[in-house]
Amino acid sequence: MIGYISDNLLLPILDFFYGLVPSYGLAIIALTVVIRLALFPLSAGSIRNARRMRIAQPVMQKRQAEIRAKFASNPQKQQEELGKLMKEFGSPLAGCLPLVVQMPILFALFATLRGSPFADVPYTFNVKVVPADQVASVEAKPFASASHSIFITETNHIPVVAALPGGNRLGVGEQAKVLLQTKDGSESLEAVEQRLTPTIDMSPQWKLTKGDGVVSLAADGSLRALSPGDATVEVKIPGLAARSGFLFIKALGQVGIRTDGQVNWDIAGLVAGFGISLFLSQILSGWGMPANPQQATANKITPVMITGMFLFFPLPAGVLLYMVIANIFQAFQTFVLIREPLPENLQAILDQQMSQQTVTASATAISSERLPFEPKGKR
């Protein structure tokens, strides 16, 4: 499903915006905004529900405890009353469904920005070598990897697979060649390049990541089985825009904060922007709500933890650009939605919570002022 959404929805949108403004950086921003606008009703439902549950949760927990205690001997009545409570305030799970529905599209968007043209596209597959006397017992089954859309030019992309027509099981001494071809097998990648004339050198990069003594790998993808065992072959097709810059970003396909001992300050800036925008979004989600020390601590720690993950799981600059823009859009969406009027019952609860918070804060302040002074009558 993710590949289908990417090929039939996201890439056409990307092509459209690149056709308007020939900049892949601007195309990423436009694609992100379009997808976020399309998902606005779903994500808005999640934000609204989270806001309402944050207000109603203390009251709901108290009422649930009362209902369970009152109807402990009558489970049917207990469930009936709990159902009425949910109908009154809503279900905490109501905000999960919109998230589940939009996840395939977001995963597809993420996968699109990690593939061609923004990054070099890897194809990895295993090869098993058996002794020569066992070759006859091995059933030859054609092998083909998953397909990836490869941009040959800025306006032409095709689904490409890595294939072994004779299968990925070889006998010692046998030879085979990995074919990079269209998904339907009608045309080789080399023939497509000759027909469309790519704007960069798209020579595949071959690498044997496992099984040095099991198979030998030539620069044209030819394999020769040397000894029984398992081997892993990787071939990368260069991404058309992987080395293209945008604003302060040196290359949209660049991965990691450090490369060859040098700090990539553009990547560091994107990671910092992601953390700041995530922190801002979380702060806005609690605007106008009663103080919650636990929530405040989580709002400070969570952005730091998630941002720190990029040190161990680095992402391409193009993906980070998308994540920063998506966070900014989320913060704006949160700012708009928290200004919406609440239902009367929830507004009454919120007013009461804010009033109690004010009284508590005043009492704490008065107590703090009296602490330095000794009570009257004591020496």
List its salient traits.
10 helices, alpha+beta, 4-stranded antiparallel beta sheet, 379 residues, 4-stranded mixed beta sheet
Structure notes:
- A hairpin with a 2-residue loop joins strand 3 (148-153) and strand 4 (156-164).
- Helix 7 (265-285) packs antiparallel against helix 8 (293-308).
- It contains ten helices and 13 strands.
- It has helices at 2-20, 24-38, 40-70, 75-89, 96-114, 189-196, 265-285, 293-308, 317-337, 344-370; strands at 121-130, 143-144, 148-153, 156-164, 169-171, 175-177, 179-182, 205-210, 215-217, 222-225, 229-237, 258-259, 262-263.
- The chain is elongated, with a radius of gyration of 29 Å.
- The strands form four sheets. Strands 5-1-11-8 form a four-stranded mixed β-sheet, with no helix packed on it. Strands 2, 3, 4 and 7 form a four-stranded antiparallel β-sheet that branches.
In brief, what are we looking at here?
By secondary structure, this protein is α+β, with helices and mostly antiparallel strands.
Task: Annotate the secondary structure layout.
Layout lengths: L1 H19 L3 H15 L1 H31 L4 H15 L6 H19 L6 E10 L12 E2 L3 E6 L2 E9 L4 E3 L3 E3 L1 E4 L6 H8 L8 E6 L4 E3 L4 E4 L3 E9 L20 E2 L2 E2 L1 H21 L7 H16 L8 H21 L6 H27 L9
Parallel strand pairs: 1-5
Antiparallel strand pairs: 1-11, 2-4, 3-4, 4-7, 6-10, 8-11, 9-10, 12-13
Helix pairs in contact: 1-2, 1-5, 2-9, 3-4, 3-5, 3-10, 7-8, 7-9
Largest sheet: 4 strands, mixed
Structural class: alpha+beta
> Quaternary status of these chains?
single chain
| Major sheet strand order | 5-1-11-8
> Count of DSSP helices?
10
Task: Provide the helix percentage.
Answer: 40-55%
